[in-house]
Amino acid sequence: MHRSTSDNAPVQYLLFLGDTTEHGYAKTAFGLRDWAGDRCVGELALPAATVTTGLPRMSARQAREHGAGAMVIGVAAPGGLIPPSWVPCLVEALEAGLDIISGMHDRLADVADVRAVAERHGRRLIDIRTPPPNIPIASGQRRAGRRLLTVGTDCALGKKYTALAIARGLRARGIDADFRATGQTGIMIAGSGMPIDAVVSDFVAGAAELLSPAAPADHLDVIEGQGSLFHPAYAGVSLGLLHGSQPDTFVVCHDPSRTHLLGYPDCALPSIEAVIAHTVALGRVTNPDIRCVGVALNSSALTTAAAEAEMAALQQRLGLPVADPMRPGAQFERLLDACTP
Amino acid sequence: MHRSTSDNAPVQYLLFLGDTTEHGYAKTAFGLRDWAGDRCVGELALPAATVTTGLPRMSARQAREHGAGAMVIGVAAPGGLIPPSWVPCLVEALEAGLDIISGMHDRLADVADVRAVAERHGRRLIDIRTPPPNIPIASGQRRAGRRLLTVGTDCALGKKYTALAIARGLRARGIDADFRATGQTGIMIAGSGMPIDAVVSDFVAGAAELLSPAAPADHLDVIEGQGSLFHPAYAGVSLGLLHGSQPDTFVVCHDPSRTHLLGYPDCALPSIEAVIAHTVALGRVTNPDIRCVGVALNSSALTTAAAEAEMAALQQRLGLPVADPMRPGAQFERLLDACTP
To answer: What is the pLDDT of residues A256-266, one digit of tens each?
Structure first.
């Protein structure tokens, strides 16, 4: 998607942190550092920022000299807008020879100064959240190749990290596996993907079909899930993605420290069993053989001992491998065994 | 939505049939004739058209003299485009003093001649399929008033007609009920609504919340369903609409002559029981009291005797009232009893 035109090598990124003081607003920057660290040459922040990725601080010009091709907006501002205080930095990056990549709802080209400078210097403004034109209505036709989807009991509990960790783990075993991104951070990490939540609802399943096209029989696409079938706002996105992905297998992502949906104090978290049952029942519409192969537990709020106890109890209850993809070891290897086509 | 500005009376329509020769392409015109006949002054067709609604044929100027405020494009052209052969008629309607209302994917203002003439004469070009700006993310919060949703075993088998018939039947019994439209034909019939399949997927449930806002405790919104939870392309739309609508009750619409989904020969029709079970399980996310109150059977392909036998058998099997809303009588009155809050 955003590769350099000369040699088809992935573009190197400078991570822009704006004036961010909230760690949670910088999840794109942290995702890129953690999963595409070899493509991040450094970070750039305004003086007011307190958040850092730990990468070398540098100017846009220095980043260009270090091989960067684009500056990525690695933070979200409240409301999804591009604040005026960022504009001089964006202009400076364009003048230094960098493209700009954004996953915000605001379009870069709608900021007049940014658009004018980009046009003058022939730089690209890449809005990750703009879906491609002419997405078809889903055909529902089975296609070759194998697919695994990460699903969840809620939003924002590890579906992207789980898909990335499974794809990486399987590739390390010599399996032909690709990570398929469906959200802005994932798309920046992968360099391509489909911003599924920005697609018009009639076309969501069709967009998911485009994202993981027909492939050789032994190829596995590991698809980043979105939302939850039991989420009062986003379940439609989750179901369209499930139907279009036609997954053969899925992994349920769960955070045992959550008692209700994030931001929805009146909505109890669904049980893992309910998520499995409904994912199978509805997923059968486009893949009659769909089955759950394991659970990815986000145990970041637990001690190692508590995490291991929780995983053992769940494994016992469900009869499925349970592992935290962020805690490498025998448990995660067993989950990878189950994910191997 | 499109009411005359002077007296807030509903606008009278002239139905435009283009050069249509396929009955199935004119379902908007037939829907308006059947459900908003008192607001249709006549029809206008090109010489090549063979389809007719049976309403008086007249020119745009004559329609204006009969009180029409807008010409409705009552047909869909293959591909959803506005063919050049229609443009002189659209221009003539604008010059005669009519607004134009379209439910097509193509925007009226994207046709240069149409836009220019509309601007010159101060007429409105109303694209029903353009959602309003600033739709919020769904809150999931319960709101006052009661809601009934029509759901289906497939697309295009009577969810709109069923909702319209239930709303009309309940109003005739003195119940404070409104039809809430979610598709282009329904929106033209009602004069307002939400084109739910044109909303960006993240906002579908939020759009459904907007469509049926908080209301007095004894008010009933009868909401037009879309798609099916078991449809490989449109299930995401159906689930977002279900969650945002928070229905207390639902009616399953079914066509006993279908063996597979329309246009999807590889997809078997789900059973009515499966649709009920999954609508209840997923609908509980936003309304724990959701329940099925009956089945609307589209028996248009059956003789009266065969329809009655089919309804009796289904009623026996499901233990729920079963009726064809297009066949008035005791069966439909029992379905209305069950829909009464």
So the answer is: 999 999 999 98
Interatomic CA distance for residues A337 and A326, integer angstroms: 16
In angstroms, the Cα distances linking A97 to A62, A226, A327, B40, B223 are: 11, 34, 40, 61, 53
For B124, counting Cβ atoms within 10 Å of its Cβ (0-12 exposed, 13-18 middle, 19+ buried), the class is: middle
Residues of A in contact with B232 (CB under 8 A): 138-140, 205, 243-244, 285-286
Residues 76-95 (B) with a CB less than 8 A from some CB of A: none
Tokens of B26: 């004119």
In whole angstroms, give the CA distance from residue B243 to residue B226: 13
Inter-chain contact B235–A240, Cβ cutoff 8 Å? yes
Is A73 in the same domain as A200? Answer: no
Q: Give the CA dihedral A315, A321, A325, A327, nearest 10 degrees.
A: 60
Structural domain includes residue A141:
no
What number is the ipTM of this complex?
A: 0.92
Q: Which domain holds residue B82?
A: 12-127
CATH code at position A53: 3.40.50.720
Give yes or no: residues B204 and B303 share one domain.
Answer: yes
CB B261, CB B231: distance < 8 Å: yes
Q: Does A237 touch chain B (CB under 8 A)?
A: yes
pLDDT band, residue B77 (cuts 50/70/90): confident
Are residues A166 and A78 part of one domain?
no
Q: In chain A, what residues touch B137 (CB-CB under 8 Å)?
A: 233
Could you tell me if B64 and B157 lie in one domain? no
Asked whether the beta carbons of residue B236 and residue A243 sit closer than 8 angstroms, the reply is yes
CATH code: domain of residue B202: 3.40.50.300
Residues 6 or more apart from B341 whose CB is under 8 A from it? Answer: B146, B175, B218, B220, B248
